[in-house]
Amino acid sequence: MNKSEKYYHELMAHRHVSRRGLFRAFVSAAKHTTPEVLSTRLGHSLPPGAVPDAEFITQCTQCSQCIDVCPMGVLSRHEDGYPQLMIEYASCDGCGLCIAACSSDALRVQSRFDTGLRPVFCNSACVNPVRQCKQCVDVCPRQACFINESGRMSADNERCDGCGECVVQCPHNAVTLY
């Protein structure tokens, strides 16, 4: 089974995906775009539980064990050889398997799961001011997404754990993680 088959199998096993969401994933996959993510010293986002950048670079052996055990398929090998968190078609559910698989201690157990990423809403792409979509609000497991007083989408960064469910479920590609 190749990675894309494994990814879609796991996605369907763990999540309810609407026909619209599945179609959006197929259409988006054809674009081959990389989402803009939190920029680190490495230039890409790191897996949950990653130690600070300088320490991560010295400790990570680039063994790919964290990538191999990720049931959601959101970890992949970056061109520099280090693992990267790519929340594009599936969200990170915080299962901790990547942390448990890390033998170099570059990924550590967190007191509170957090990927370190936060949603940013593109007001020009979001249809909420025109038509009450609220998909991101409805699917957020931490109730961090909300409609602010001006009718625009916003996120409570204290409540948010960066899982990416809002990105995955937005039918208008109006959410990116930074």
From TrEMBL:
It holds the Pfam family Fer4_7. Gene3D superfamilies: 3.30.70.20. The keyword Metal-binding applies. It comes from the Bacteria. The keyword Cell cycle does not apply. Residues 50-80, 83-112, 117-150, 151-178 form the 4Fe-4S ferredoxin-type domain. Keywords: 4Fe-4S, Iron, Iron-sulfur, Metal-binding. InterPro entries: 4Fe4S_Fe-S-bd, 4Fe4S_Fe_S_CS, PSI_iron-sulfur_center. This is 4Fe-4S binding protein.
